[in-house]
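Risk mitigation, structural track. In case the binding assays with LANB7ZPL fail to produce interpretable data, a predicted complex structure has been prepared as a fallback.
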Amino acid sequence: METRRILAINPGSTSTKIAVFQGDKSVFLKNIKHSNEELAQFGKISEQFEFRKNIIMKELIDAEIQIDLIEAVVGRGGLVKPIESGIYSVNERLKEDLRIGVLGEHASNLGGLIADNIAQALPKAKAYIADPVVVDEMIDVARVSGHPEFERVSIFHALNQKAIGRAYAQSVDKKYEDVNVIVAHLGGGISVGAHRKGRVIDVNNALDGEGPFSPERSGTLPAGALAKLCFSGNYTLEQVKKMIKGEGGLVAHIGTNDAYDVELKAKAGDEKAKLIQDAMSYQVGKAIGEMASVLKGEVDGILLTGGIAHNPDLVNYIKEMVSFIAPVVVYPGEDEMKALAMNGYMVLRGEIQPREYC
Ligand SMILES: Nc1ncnc2c1ncn2[C@@H]1O[C@H](COP(=O)(O)OP(=O)(O)O)[C@@H](O)[C@H]1O
Ligand SMILES: CCCC(=O)OP(=O)(O)O
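Fallback model:
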């Protein structure tokens, strides 16, 4: 039996998730939700470091977890330079790029930094990140936007999309590298990726104004109207950036980043909540259709995952739109905590060498 313990840390836009694994079993699992009001007190993401770290430490202490037994701390990785899928040691260069947020600001920038900070205080633990949000496997043609000033970049829920892709492949007795799937991760951000034989060849930038709108992001906006708004003199750059990320999507329309709250309102007969929930579902369905053409119609399965995949009304709306393409399989929640821990065990067992970020 595996006796070594691994701590997995996953800061998301609407939550901080923590898990302690012993082998493939989680001996502790906690999902702490953060409302938009709670996070509004912080300017930059880096300012949330102490807040999120203190929450994690308090939860571990309250649960009487013997943290000195932990041998690896694996954090969800953030917006560093585009890199290959895999597990990376948290080295000085990685920490520097997580602090800067080379490709922007997102809570996952804190994953590696908090992992490192906690590991440093433990007798035998090392810190890693696995499949960060900047995993980049896009094909060249997908990188080209309609203007050379703007190159498309791969920023998405790489960790969970790949974990769910592998889980689906296993369920049909195939290897992830042998199937074509479309994965829609429906969380604080929404990403829809085309996985061709184990590589995500196209995906919307879930962070920065591409794809479906989400609980706290605008997704694609009409470019001309956006340019006009920017130069109206009524908004600062910071305000416009917040409209796109943090205060877009459900927050802008309904005033909450809690999709469950919107689901309850829609169920109770609130017509606006229903329209906005339907519009979010509609945009996801449309994005799945796009990715089906990226895969030239050769789609083994459409996989819906993330917290919002718990919502049956939203799932049914999407199913009605896309079931003609391929079977739809729903994986509510995410497999990120296990994916982080299993990557850690592969390193501890010497099955893989952690990559060096440079
Ligand atoms: N049981 C549920 N039913 C409907 N929505 C849910 C449920 N559980 C979580 N959600 C919604 O999922 C979203 C968060 O998804 P999650 O994948 O945890 O995101 P993140 O990691 O980005 O914080 C929130 O808007 C939350 O309200
Ligand atoms: C940065 C892309 C991944 C993402 O949007 O994650 P959350 O849904 O956790 O914010």
